[in-house]
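Preliminary data (for renewal application), flavin-adenine dinucleotide complex.
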Amino acid sequence: MKGCRATPAKAYRIRKTAPETNQNSKYTAHMPHIADLLKNPQHRTTSFEFFPPKNDEAQEQLQQAITGLEPLHPDFISVTYGANGSARHFTFAATEFVKRESSAVAMGHLTCVSQSVGDLKGAIASYKDIQVENILAVRGDPVGGPTAPWVKHPDGLDNATQLVELVKSQGDFCVGVAAFCDPHPETMNFELDAKLLADKQRAGAEFAITQLFFGAHKYFELVERAAKWGCDFPILPGIMPVTNVNQIERFATLSGAALPADLVERLEAVRDDPASVRAIGIEVAVDMCRELLAGGAPGLHFFTQNRSKATREIVEAL
Ligand SMILES: Cc1cc2nc3c(=O)[nH]c(=O)nc-3n(C[C@H](O)[C@H](O)[C@H](O)COP(=O)(O)OP(=O)(O)OC[C@H]3O[C@@H](n4cnc5c(N)ncnc54)[C@H](O)[C@@H]3O)c2cc1C
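Predicted structure:
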């Protein structure tokens, strides 16, 4: 099983050199498929997620985050896609920017909310035009939010599995998918989520990234459940530290589960002291990352919120 190797953990080392360079891009000679990067059992990948900036200030923040994280030599960086695709040009521009400005492989996300198959083919063609061959195929949340009922576009797709098939039919793409350590809020069904991962692998997906979660055991349980359904591709844990108390509610909505009571208690006890809240969040994230790597996770994927400081602190602590 690749996602959760039974062998003892290899040391988690930051890659010391940038990949080969050429004149086409600032850093990367070619864009390897992320699935190939994940095949190296000696190497645990480090990767980051950014969202596309929509104004000059946000663009500057993204630039700073890329620069700030570059010393960690990320293996890949992914860029999110606004669920309904209406702002997709921002995603293509940001993915191209990442490709140019970072040594990392760039991956673009894609959703199927409110888009016809024709729209989706257009989006995939746009990725091809900018030579982005790694795509994270997710369904996207319904227009009314994560718990609103799902409504398919009349000429569109119903779920991420169908989106994986569509992307694979459009060219030589390496496709990743979403995974869930806590049950997906729409169905609250652990086994269905695990079975769907196996379905997505059969449809052509080659790796998955989890939604944020708290508790390394949840990740290992997911890997075990997925394996029972025949899914053996690498599953990267998605990491997001709590850095302020206002995130407690938001994280619960995103992950589909409340934060562990003991963590909430620790955070509430220092809620008026932002530095202490942050320190606890980082400490908990570092401990969880250590446990994940020791248990065989193939790498760590950080939801950075376009900032570099917290992620740097965690990776450097590791
Ligand atoms: C790493 C990561 C990155 C993400 N990036 C983005 C992004 O860039 N933009 C964005 O808008 N959202 C993003 N999301 C959020 C994601 O789109 C939502 O969580 C969405 O609700 C589920 O996406 P999915 O790909 O798992 O969908 P699916 O696998 O299609 O599942 C969606 C729901 O339908 C159910 N379902 C699916 N197939 C079947 C079936 N055959 N039978 C019965 N039930 C079924 C599932 O149980 C689930 O409840 C991301 C999530 C993660 C974990």
